[in-house]
Amino acid sequence: GNSVTQMEGPVTLSEEAFLTINCTYTATGYPSLFWYVQYPGEGLQLLLKATKADDKGSNKGFEATYRKETTSFHLEKGSVQVSDSAVYFCATPGSSGDKLTFGTGTRLAVRP
Amino acid sequence: DVKVTQSSRYLVKRTGEKVFLECVQDMDHENMFWYRQDPGLGLRLIYFSYDVKMKEKGDIPEGYSVSREKKERFSLILESASTNQTSMYLCASSFASGSGETQYFGPGTRLLVL
Fold it and tell me: Per CB distance under 8 Å, which residues of B are interface residues toward A?
C-alpha cells in the first residue's frame, strides 16, 4: 500500500530561519498528500494538502509542492517563528479507501 | 468549523479496569477513527468506522473494541486496561470519498494505566 517517510527530528532552528522538513512517498498512482501539525497539548490539524501531482499546497506561510519526479512533498517555510514549534506529520491515503497512513512525525523547536 | 470532541483530556485508570473513551463529531461525517500516539511510533490506527454499526480493524486492534451506535459518536473500549495501553488516544472524523479525505482530529485523551 501507499506510505510516507519523513525526516527524523528533532529539528531546532532560530527564529526567522528557513525550514525544510522532508517527506517522500511510495504510492500507486498519485494519491493526495497532506501535512498535519500538532501543537503542544493538542490534536492534529490539517496544515496543507495537495490532491494531484504538481499541485502546491500553502497555509500560514508554509508551502509544499507535490513532485512526482522525486516522489516528494517537502514542507518549507521561509522564516519560522517561535509559535511554529510543533510536531509535523506527512500523510497519504493508505492502501484503500479513506484511511490515511502517517509518517512518524518531525518535532520542530524554534528558539527566540 | 468541524468540531471533534473527546470526553476527557486526562484519565488515570488501574490495571484490569474497563475504560471508555468517547468521541463526538458535529459535521455529519461518515468516517470515524481511533488512533494511539506514542513517541517514536507516530500515529497507529486502532479501529475505523465507516457507518453506524460498521467497523474495521486497524493496525493494532488487540485489547480494544469500539462501538458506533449513532453517526456522531464513536467509542473506544479497553476491556481490561493494561499498563502497555498507557498512551495518547486521538479520535478523528472525515467525509467518505474512498480516496482519502481530510481527517479532523479531537484534542486527544492522555491515558495513564497504573
Answer: 4, 31, 33, 40-43, 45, 48, 50, 58, 90, 92, 94, 96-108
